[in-house]
Amino acid sequence: MRLKYWLLSSVLFLVTACDMKAINSPYPEASSDESILYSAFSLRPKHLDPARSYSANEAIITGQVYEPPYQYHYLKRPYQLEPLSASAMPEVVYLDKDDNPVNANAKNIAFSVYSIPIKHDILYQPHPAFVKDENGNWLYHHLTDEQIANVEDLADFEKTGTRQLVAADFVYQIKRLAHPEVHSPILGVMAEHIVGLKEYAEQLRAIRKEQGEVDLRQHEISGVKTIDDYHYQIKVYGKYPQLDYWLAMPFFAPIPWEAEEFYSQPGLINKNITLDWYPVGTGPFYMTENDPNRRMVLTKNPNFHGERYPAEGEDTDKQNGLLDDAGKPLPMIDKIVFTLEKENTSYWGKFMQGYYDVSGISSDSFEQAVNISTSGEFGLSDEMKAKGIKLETAIAATSFYTGFNMLDPVVGGYSERARKLRQAISIAIDQEEYISIFANGRGIPAQGPIPPGIFGYSEGKAGINPYMYTWKNGQAERKSIEAAKQLLAEAGYPNGRDKKTGEPLVIYMDITASGPDSKSDLDWMRKQFRKLKIQLVLRSSDYNRFQDKIRRGQVQMFQWGWNADYPDPENFLFLLYGPNGRAQFGGENTANYQNKDFDKLFEKMRTMSNTPERLAIIKQMVDIVRKDTPWIWGFHPKQFSLYHEWNHNVKPNLMANNTLKYRRIDTGVREKLQSQWNQPILWPLGIVIIVIMLMVMPAVFIYRSKKYKKHHFPST
């Protein structure tokens, strides 16, 4: 009997000991007392140093850790800057070439001086770089090999400290942009604007070459000054109002010199304990775990200076519940957990189980998630609605385009022949079809370089590109392929052959795509050119080689894209500004386009406020590039995001990268629905138990039979 009772009790223990809530949860260690936001990453961030980081998958980390002087208001549209670590918006004084003050509208403005005030009593996150011993010496700045031997990550340091944020930390970070070992991607752009930055970079390179090491505290930039602990200045050439937008990016977030000193120790560098791996900031979260092969964790900063949820926004925000938390302290979540997910199907499956809070929509899951009405409107599928999932969409401030190299003797140049050739090809490449097939309809055809949401973009009939479209039945309609063939003939290539030589027209397009996944995309592109009987040769190369060919101007056509750094038309129109030509000047004008009328208007427009006069100039510029067609204007993607009903304060913000502090998670609702959606299936366990019992019972009967005989029939 004891064996039987033992078996039954063991089975009961196994069943009752199981936590049914977490039986298939990917977070068995999660605490119900914490408000945790769960997300994922498929490609680990390469740089978390704010002077180097420039990718979207990095900004999701750096945006939560670092605090530049300014940020975008979470709710207001159009996008509006407001103080973050600064205590007020900058005061700007305009100077002539002799540093004498002049009026803001003066024609002889040579410099602009931005004075930025910093908030008091902001502390850095807990970090070993700030710890001193009882004698006031840095405890961890000069570690021995023996001490470093026991360190594997930042959490292995026993003690942490902090200090107050000061204006010198912002100046120190601007200096870092010029450091020869940092390789900041914005040095070239900022050197054109910040007085003395170019010369400072040259000075640092010379010092490093001569001395091997550079101490930024010993060398100053002529145009960047610390006034006192809570004020600093930036001096720029001429008028550059876009500097306000740059000051809302992590590039201009403060960095304490102590952190760089701490991380410069070779023993730590060898263990990848660097600023690029473990950021140091004043923001609402700080990194407590960084395992790129498993997960990254951001935890609420115990030293956070405090911020309140906004109390105003757009007219519809109140009715949408986006002001329910007005005035409440931020952040509203305790932790952010990013888990490595290499496959879209795995991420999607866990999202549907409720183990991820938000999800994009891949092509594989699009039909499951979204219904498209007969009028072309997007809506959630019945399955998504039944789960209480919400859909948020927004046209991204992004332009994907196909560029013509204007230096090329065939597709480039500014003759009527070359212009009509580019226009013919542009009409033939059916962007509407591409969006429908390859983007599940998630995008709108571009009519020019400026995307929706940016000043200068026009909707409806007034906004169409008249060289590519006509306005018919209340909507834009792409011109016919016959119109494209006519333009091609006028360009000297009837039926895709050179009128003079009879040779077929062959166009070369450089791409980075390769392999079976991109085959359908490339086949579609060839099909577009075949409409005009033009032979398209696709030249594939790795990304580094492709970049090099673009830099040298050794391409004919290429595919490219640009995502807004800030919400100003200058950030898109400068992509076509002549002095920004990639091949000649190393700028972002990858098409190497140059039109003196466009350039003259750009120089006037770039420093203007968003006035009707500026809008009129922008329209002239857009008309010029539409006619010249240096780009096939491509499309602006539409972002789709799915949120479970326990997510609150969700509003797409295409400019800000620090929005997770506003999010609120109803953990009670999440746990309840996770439990409902993930009920364990126990009947197979019951069958296993029965089988085990049936297998054991004969042994039990034999055992009992032998015991009975021994008891009743003892041997003599």
Structure write-up:
It is a single chain. The protein is an alpha+beta fold. Helix content is 31%, strand content 18%. A hairpin with a 5-residue loop joins strand 15 (370-372) and strand 16. It is globular and about 120 Å long. The strands form eight sheets. Strands 14, 17, 18, 19, 22, 23, 24 and 25 form an eight-stranded mixed beta sheet that branches. The protein has a five-stranded antiparallel beta sheet with strand order 5-4-6-8-7, with helices on one face.
Architecture blueprint of SSEs:
Blueprint: H1 2-17, E1 36-41, H2 56-65, E2 70-72, E3 81-83, E4 91-95, E5 101-102, E6 111-117, H3 145-149, H4 167-176, H5 187-191, H6 197-211, E7 224-228, E8 231-237, H7 243-246, H8 257-263, H9 266-270, E9 285-291, E10 295-300, E11 307-308, E12 329-330, E13 335-340, H10 344-352, E14 358-359, H11 366-369, E15 370-372, E16 378-380, H12 382-386, E17 390-395, E18 398-404, H13 416-428, H14 431-438, E19 443-445, E20 469-472, E21 475-478, H15 481-490, E22 506-511, H16 519-530, E23 535-540, H17 543-552, E24 557-563, H18 570-573, H19 582-585, H20 596-605, H21 612-628, E25 631-643, E26 647-648, E27 664-665, H22 667-677, H23 683-712
Helix pairs in contact: 1-23, 13-15, 20-21
Summary of the model, kept short:
The chain is an alpha+beta fold and 716 residues long. The protein contains 23 helices and 27 strands.
